[in-house]
């Protein structure tokens, strides 16, 4: 029996991937860019074991048995085993059954990049089990598109590329580049999202003209500007681009037919509070971004963390008063007191 355990972090996109041009290879319609979070914050932990004694292969996710024959899991396992065979045809463990046990230390399938961390982790663990070296982002991508960005740390671009070999992740700056950058995750709803990102993307590709425009006309320019803002550590610009890109993703979801709503009233309240804080200070102190779910990811600098968290808490207290039907205090008059 051979066993390995790996952890892999989530990544939060600031230029979102939405839409596939090839469903099988998972080639995206547009390039995307994200930050990979620290391992110890939100991560997947996967143990892969293989043994001659195992009667069958099995997959366990957060303690519950899942279907190991799902296309994506099989794509990943087959690709890695093929590479392992090419490297060492006499490696007998390749023919043994595998047991995969994975768990996340954060809500799964709630639009918090659990599949990115999960597949990046699975690919790293399998590659280690079968002693494969080299770039794993092409393989991780075939499990879940965004997973290809989680195999690298720091700020990572996924170039849409022209084929499977060059549609891979590229680190634009390492994890030490912007040390005072922080991400605040607000879990609005930890439940599973109603429309999966795969289902949502497929429907958008079929029905949204805006998506076509975004992929062709908007994202290439956005990628250039975002990369520059990150390299120059220009938070004000970075924040505006991040929020605009998130809003565009959700505009496309509404342009999809029938429409998809991932954000809920609480998400929109957070969006409103963020803009109120930024307007009040006449500069961007914080940026929101929402994936395929209602949960908010806020990017902010360490120096503003206390200000932003206390204003958010206060805003939620005010929001609760409003909900109870009490008189509405004006947000801007209250947020700094
Ligand atoms: O990797 P997937 O299929 O779960 O797609 C995720 C897409 C978004 O999270 C919405 C955006 C992104 O780029 O991470």
UniProtKB/TrEMBL annotation:
- Could you state a single Gene Ontology molecular function term? ATP binding
User: Does the keyword Lipid biosynthesis feature in the UniProt annotation?
Assistant: yes
**What EC designation does it have?**
4.1.1.33
UniProt keywords, alphabetically: ATP-binding, Cholesterol biosynthesis, Cholesterol metabolism, Lipid biosynthesis, Lipid metabolism, Lyase, Nucleotide-binding, Steroid biosynthesis, Steroid metabolism, Sterol biosynthesis, Sterol metabolism
Q: Which BP terms in the Gene Ontology apply to this protein?
A: cholesterol biosynthetic process; isopentenyl diphosphate biosynthetic process, mevalonate pathway
Family (UniProt): Belongs to the diphosphomevalonate decarboxylase family.
Among PANTHER family, the record links this protein to: DIPHOSPHOMEVALONATE DECARBOXYLASE
The protein's name: Diphosphomevalonate decarboxylase
Q: Which organism is it from?
A: Dimorphilus gyrociliatus
